[in-house]
């Protein structure tokens, strides 16, 4: 599903964010990426949806070799990956429904398909009754649910989340996690960078710990391993 | 830039780009206004300049087409001497025909062309008797005139040379000045369009970011901005087209009255107005698209 072989990332300012990363994530896995601030978690994640290119090494995502992927074909890769961020990235003037539909409209999905899929995912994240509201009328947790709905509306094989609960209070964070578990249960691969010790130590899954650009730990059913 | 330009664009996608591009126009009203105004001023000047230039060009060809050499006959030439001159001219290989015109007739022509003021000269006619010589080809006119000048009883041989030369040099300078001015204005307009598009791109950067994340193609992202530039250029050309279409009809009216019977004539209203309108619209569309293209390339980074 996701393979990295000897991946090194050096930013143009000289910072080396990742060093010789070797990792293999199988279809349907649920993986936490943990580590101190500045360790390279976000960079690791950006490699997967080709927001950043590796300086060295090979990355294959869902059968697509990112090293040889032409710039113009990046959109095709993105359609197979859902991405969720700490800051939701919703469009403030669009309604909940429109924000989710947006992801399908811009890849020229047909109106009938759009309607059905959007209603389905809003149902899944429990926001069907708030479809007509705009983001500023929603709580942080609800906004993140809209963002998750948007990330999965195109039925991606993998969802990648960078600190999705970072802006949320603990209770809301658990709500979000239950949605992620639901998505993962349906067979979608989930990769999630997080600083949330409680979640990692409770919902036990594979843990990849990165420090100073290197993988220092990779355990099935691992724990957070740092002081919160 | 890359593939997938228009290939298989769905009607619904096309409608969306259309809609979005118009939304963009209204989004930053003042910049839109400034860009459209710049295009308007530019195209107005370019249009007037082209109209003048094309008419001068026409005048120059009209004059060139005039294959006449007017041979002024020495005042003291007797009738037999005149006859001899006529024979001499007729025998030149370049000459097609020759007609005689008395100085009285010449004066009548002058009065007809330039007004009754010249009637004064009826008492004491200062003109010459004239042979009007037509050459076979316009290019032969100078050669024929030069030969005729050497003949006895020729006072002078006049043809369009001076007029054409003066007109051509005027044409050249005005064309150069107009060209530089137009280019400067075109670039200013393009820059303003480019700037407007830059503002729109900036205003929509969040949408663009999300489009990229969810896998919209580069062309899908570009189209609304390219269309926005196209609209700016086309809207800016409306006023110039109208102004020239109306203005030129007045010019034509005034000119035809004044230059009746003259061999130099302004370009006829049709099809000239269609042509100049087409050119203005094309230039408008071009600077619009080009301006937005530059902004898209520089700021969209796709
Ligand atoms: N675009 C960039 N240009 C240059 N350096 C960068 C860039 N992005 C990240 N870095 C550097 O790379 C290193 C890793 O950053 P990264 O954002 O991956 O860390 P992180 O583990 O996600 O940290 P956090 O937990 O604070 O989000 C840092 O030293 C950071 O300064
Ligand atoms: Mg980070």
UniProtKB/TrEMBL annotation, chain A:
<dbReference type="GO" id="GO:0005524">
    <property type="term" value="F:ATP binding"/>
</dbReference>
<dbReference type="InterPro" id="IPR003439">
    <property type="entry name" value="ABC_transporter-like_ATP-bd"/>
</dbReference>
<keyword id="KW-0132">Cell division</keyword>
<comment type="function">
    <text>Part of the ABC transporter FtsEX involved in cellular division.</text>
</comment>
<dbReference type="InterPro" id="IPR005286">
    <property type="entry name" value="Cell_div_FtsE"/>
</dbReference>
<dbReference type="GO" id="GO:0022857">
    <property type="term" value="F:transmembrane transporter activity"/>
</dbReference>
<keyword id="KW-1003">Cell membrane</keyword>
<dbReference type="InterPro" id="IPR027417">
    <property type="entry name" value="P-loop_NTPase"/>
</dbReference>
<comment type="similarity">
    <text>Belongs to the ABC transporter superfamily.</text>
</comment>
<dbReference type="Pfam" id="PF00005">
    <property type="entry name" value="ABC_tran"/>
</dbReference>
<keyword id="KW-0547">Nucleotide-binding</keyword>
<comment type="subunit">
    <text>Homodimer. Forms a membrane-associated complex with FtsX.</text>
</comment>
<keyword id="KW-0067">ATP-binding</keyword>
<dbReference type="GO" id="GO:0005886">
    <property type="term" value="C:plasma membrane"/>
</dbReference>
<dbReference type="InterPro" id="IPR015854">
    <property type="entry name" value="ABC_transpr_LolD-like"/>
</dbReference>
<protein>
    <recommendedName>
        <fullName>Cell division ATP-binding protein FtsE</fullName>
    </recommendedName>
</protein>
<keyword id="KW-0472">Membrane</keyword>
<feature type="domain" description="ABC transporter">
    <location>
        <begin position="2"/>
        <end position="228"/>
    </location>
</feature>
<keyword id="KW-0131">Cell cycle</keyword>
<keyword id="KW-0813">Transport</keyword>
<dbReference type="GO" id="GO:0051301">
    <property type="term" value="P:cell division"/>
</dbReference>
<dbReference type="GO" id="GO:0016887">
    <property type="term" value="F:ATP hydrolysis activity"/>
</dbReference>
<dbReference type="InterPro" id="IPR017871">
    <property type="entry name" value="ABC_transporter-like_CS"/>
</dbReference>
<dbReference type="InterPro" id="IPR003593">
    <property type="entry name" value="AAA+_ATPase"/>
</dbReference>
């Amino acid at each position: 599903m996701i393979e990295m072989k000897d991946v090194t990332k050096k930013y143009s300012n000289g910072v080396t964010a990742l060093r010789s990363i070797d990792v293999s994530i199988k279809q349907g896995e649920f993986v936490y990426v943990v580590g101190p601030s500045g360790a390279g978690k976000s960079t690791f994640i950006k490699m997967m949806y080709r927001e950043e290119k590796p300086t060295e090494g090979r990355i294959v995502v869902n059968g697509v070799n990112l090293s040889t992927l032409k710039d113009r074909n990046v959109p095709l890769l993105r359609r197979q990956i859902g991405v969720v961020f700490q800051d939701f990235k919703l469009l403030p003037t669009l309604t909940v429904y429109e924000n989710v539909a947006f992801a399908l409209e811009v890849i020229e999905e047909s109106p009938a398909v759009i309607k059905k899929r959007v209603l389905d995912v809003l149902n899944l994240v429990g926001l069907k009754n708030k479809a007509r509201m705009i983001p500023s009328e929603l709580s942080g947790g609800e906004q993140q649910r809209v963002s998750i709905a948007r990330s999965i509306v195109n039925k991606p094989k993998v969802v990648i989340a960078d600190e999705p609960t970072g802006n949320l209070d603990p209770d809301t964070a658990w709500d979000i996690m239950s949605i992620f578990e639901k998505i993962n249960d349906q067979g979608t691969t989930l990769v999630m960078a997080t600083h949330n010790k409680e979640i990692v130590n409770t919902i036990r899954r594979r843990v990849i710990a990165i420090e100073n650009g290197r993988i220092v730990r990779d355990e099935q059913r691992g724990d957070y391993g740092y002081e919160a | 830039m890359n593939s997938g330009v228009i290939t298989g664009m769905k009607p619904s996608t096309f409608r969306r780009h259309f809609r979005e591009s118009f939304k963009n126009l209204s989004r930053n009203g003042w910049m839109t206004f400034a860009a459209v105004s710049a295009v308007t001023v530019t195209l107005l000047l370019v249009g007037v300049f082209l109209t003048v230039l094309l008419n001068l060009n026409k005048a120059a060809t009209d004059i060139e087409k005039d294959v006449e050499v007017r041979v002024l006959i020495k005042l003291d030439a007797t009738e037999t001497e005149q006859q001899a001159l006529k024979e001499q001219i007729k025998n030149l290989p370049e000459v097609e025909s020759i007609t005689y015109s008395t100085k009285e007739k010449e004066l009548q022509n002058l009065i007809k062309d330039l007004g009754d003021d010249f009637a004064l000269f009826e008492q004491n006619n200062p003109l010459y008797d004239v042979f009007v010589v037509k050459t076979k080809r316009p290019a032969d006119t100078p050669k024929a005139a030069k030969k005729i000048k050497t003949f006895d009883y020729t006072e002078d041989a006049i043809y369009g040379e001076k007029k054409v030369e003066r007109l051509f040099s005027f044409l050249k300078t005005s064309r150069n000045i107009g060209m530089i001015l137009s280019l400067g204005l075109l670039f200013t307009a393009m820059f303003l369009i480019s700037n407007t598009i830059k503002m729109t791109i900036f205003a929509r950067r969040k949408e663009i970011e999300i489009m990229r994340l969810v896998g919209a193609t580069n062309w899908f992202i570009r189209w609304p901005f390219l269309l926005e530039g196209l609209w700016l250029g086309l809207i800016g050309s409306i006023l110039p087209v109208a102004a020239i279409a109306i203005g030129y009809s007045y010019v034509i009216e005034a000119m035809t009255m004044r230059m009746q019977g003259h061999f130099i004539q302004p370009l006829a209203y049709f099809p000239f107005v269609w042509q100049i309108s087409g050119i203005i619209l094309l230039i408008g569309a071009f600077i619009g698209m080009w301006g937005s293209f530059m902004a898209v390339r520089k700021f969209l980074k796709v």
